[in-house]
Structures are given as structure tokens and as C-alpha cells.
Write a structure and sequence with these properties.
This protein is α/β, with parallel strands linked by helices. Helices cover 51% and strands 15% of the residues. The chain has helices at residues 6-16, 28-41, 51-55, 58-71, 87-96, 110-126, 153-163, 187-196, 211-219, 229-245, 253-275; strands spanning 20-24, 45-50, 77-84, 100-103, 130-135, 167-170, 201-203, 222-227. Strand 6 (167-170), helix 8 and strand 7 form a beta-alpha-beta unit. Helix 10 runs antiparallel to helix 11 (253-275). The radius of gyration is 18 Å and the shape is globular. The two termini are 28 Å apart.
């Protein structure tokens, strides 16, 4: 089927009280693993392309790959610009055919975040494209004083009202990258945000977050969960395993990569089933 908008799959998630998995891809195997697993589970999925790939030119070819696989999919697939920082990246993403963009201006003053996000919303909605933004700041795992960057519920209410975003990423204690110790999520803060904000909420830094904590966030309005680090680490780990197994031996690339692809599928399946509350 054709690619669908983020708002469409988030409406499905809201109706069912689940979250949709959003997975960052970077090549054929990762893209195939995500979309094929979604079809096997009969669940919608969000395929994310990080902003760096729009800057270095790789996103154009990845976008064509996603569109081709989505055309053969029996479940809804969203193609999403992840953590776009500039209007130029958003414009390029729209040109390449994404159906959803994230504008990440959360490191700017509150008023500037509203202004830039509103500009992107007006641009994207004209093209029938959904917009995600971030309020508060999901920091790298090793950052200090994360508490000062958590989302303030009253600001979330104002932000959602003034920008008309389709999804809002909130900072409640997760972080980007590997955790040295499990994160402590501020579920009470999430409850307060949900009570005043009438848009689907997004959890960044979903990799390695304890699954029982993730399930609590779904109960209180999280409808999209991002997975990047964990998926990429599985890819790299299995690549090393296969390199050792094939040391000194020839293997066609597609044969060599198949176990790597299967490992990624295992992780995607586990995450999607958890997010759909099937486990």
C-alpha cells in the first residue's frame, strides 16, 4: 500500500491504546527487517531516517527503498524524518517523499521552538505531511542534570495549542544512546502532560528502557516509541560474529548479511509485540 501519514497510524494507536514502533534504518537489511516484521505481525510501523542522511545524500536512495517496500506492504508504513534541525532538511525530506517530519528545535528558547515548529507545521500540512516536535530535551545518556530538561506540563499545553503539531515528543527521563544504568522515568510528570495535552505523545530514547516502564508510558498516552541505538547495536554485534565465522572464507554479501538481517528482525518483533501490549 502507499505510505501513510504519521497522524493516521497514531489514530490507530490511540484507538487501541497501544504504541507504534519507530525504527531508525540505514540500509537495505535494516529497512527490510522492519517492514517485513511489521507485516508478519500485522502491525503499522514507522520507518525513520535520521537527519544526517539527508545532509550526506544517502536519504534519497533510502527513501526510494522505503517507498518500494511499502508499496508491497499489507500494513501501514510511515516514512519519517528523524530529528530534523533545519528548514532545509525538512524541505529535502518532503522532496524525497516522506509522510512525516520531526522538527527538533527543543534546544532553543521556548518562544523560538514554537515559532520554528509552527513554520514547519504550516509548510508540511500544505503537503499533507504530519509533524512531530519535541519539548524538553532528551539528552545523550552521559549528560549531567537531566532533570532540568524534563518537559513542563503547562508549557506542553501551550506548545501543542500554538503549533498544531500532530505528535509531541516529551522528556520524562529517557536518554539517547546506551544506558550505564536503567533510567528512572517520571511517570507522574507524564500523567500530568497527558491530562493537559490533546495530541499523541512520543517517547525518545526507547532503546534498553525496561519494558515494564515502557508499558506504563503507553498507559499514559505514549503512542510512538523510537528505537535506534538498540537496533543498530544488534546489527553491529552480529556483523562481528559473522566476520569471525567467515574469517578466511568467501561468502557472497547477501548470504553473509542474512543472519544479521534475522537478528534485527528478532529485535523488531520483540519491541513491536511489547509496544502493541501483546506480551
Amino acid at each position: 500500500m502507499p505510505l501513510v501519514k504519521l497522524s493516521e497510524v497514531l489514530a490507530i494507536a490511540e484507538e487501541k491504546g497501544i504504541a507504534i514502533g519507530a525504527f531508525n534504518i540505514g540500509n537495505y537489511e535494516s529497512c527490510k527487517a522492519v517492514i517485513e516484521t511489521a507485516n508478519e505481525l500485522k502491525l503499522p510501523v514507522i520507518v525513520q531516517i535520521f537527519r544526517r542522511l539527508f545532509d550526506n545524500g544517502k536519504a534519497r536512495d533510502l527513501a526510494a527503498l522505503v517507498k518500494g517496500m511499502a508499496a508491497d506492504s499489507d500494513v501501514p508504513v510511515v516514512m519519517h524524518l528523524d530529528h530534523g534541525k533545519t528548514i532545509e532538511q525538512v524541505e529535502k525530506a518532503i522532496q524525497y517523499g516522506v509522510t512525516s517530519v520531526m522538527i527538533d528545535a527543543c534546544d532553543l528558547p521556548f518562544s523560538d521552538n514554537i515559532r520554528i515548529t509552527r513554520e514547519v507545521v504550516l509548510m508540511a500540512h500544505k503537503e499533507g505531511i504530519s509533524v512531530e516536535a519535541e519539548l524538553g530535551h532528551v539528552l545523550p545518556q552521559d549528560s549531567d542534570n537531566k532533570a532540568s530538561f524534563l518537559t513542563v506540563p503547562e508549557e506542553a499545553k501551550e506548545f501543542a495549542s500554538k503549533t498544531s503539531v500532530d505528535a509531541l515528543a516529551v522528556a520524562i527521563g529517557t536518554a539517547h544512546g546506551h544506558y550505564k544504568e536503567p533510567p528512572v522515568l517520571d511517570i507522574e510528570r507524564l500523567k500530568r502532560i497527558q491530562s493537559v495535552v490533546d495530541v499523541p505523545l512520543v517517547l525518545h530514547g526507547g532503546s534498553d528502557t525496561p519494558i515494564e516502564d515502557v508499558k506504563k508510558t503507553i498507559r499514559f498516552g505514549i503512542r510512538k516509541i523510537n528505537i535506534a541505538t538498540e537496533l543498530h547495536q544488534v546489527y553491529l554485534d552480529e556483523l562481528l560474529v559473522q566476520s569471525e565465522l567467515h574469517r578466511g572464507k568467501f561468502s557472497p554479501i547477501d548470504v553473509f548479511m542474512h543472519p544479521v538481517y534475522e537478528k534485527m528482525k528478532e529485535l523488531v518483533k520483540e519491541k513491536m509485540e511489547f509496544f502493541a501490549l501483546r506480551k
